[in-house]
Design a protein that fits this description.
The chain has about 150 residues and is of the alpha+beta class. The protein contains five helices and five strands. The longest helix has 24 residues.
């Protein structure tokens, strides 16, 4: 086994799709029963639930699945400083109480964190890895590129 720590991977496309599909399908089917006044035995609420569940699942999976960004770095200190500045612009601060050895954890204040999750960072000698939701990766990548890190 390697002594090198590994980033938490988070849910990928399949699990995220299933989560959003199930939630959207159930809520849609129940709303269809209440608003249309038809029973589940007619199949109509289930059809609406399945259709809107597929749309919700696909949208949720495309936006909220976890992904990892790998970046070459030349200096750990410079990268950390630029990363802290980029994440601060997005409202993230380093969580000093996180108990992940060798992995930096960034989070937003409690209420905002409920909808945004955490960002995990592993800084090696020549490469850094950042793990978070896809929706946040675009902003992180853009801000780091603007500061000269590619």
């Amino acid at each position: 086994m390697s002594d090198q720590p590994t980033l938490p991977s988070g849910p990928g496309f399949g699990l995220t799709f299933l989560y959003y599909f199930a939630g959207t399908a159930v809520v849609t089917a129940l709303l269809a029963v209440k608003t249309l006044g038809v029973g589940l035995d007619t199949g109509l609420p289930n059809l609406y639930g399945t259709l809107l569940g597929a749309v919700g699942g696909l949208t949720g999976a495309l936006v909220n699945r976890s992904t990892t960004l790998e970046l070459p770095i030349s200096s750990r200190k410079t990268f950390k400083r630029e990363l802290d500045a980029a994440l601060a612009e997005m409202g993230y601060t380093e969580d000093q109480t996180a108990q992940l050895e060798g992995i930096l954890v960034y989070r937003r204040p409690f209420v905002r964190q409920l909808l945004s999750g955490r960002i995990y960072v592993l800084i090696g000698e020549k490469q850094a890895q950042i793990s978070s939701r896809v929706i946040h990766m675009g902003g992180i990548k853009k801000r780091l590129e603007a500061s000269g890190i590619r």
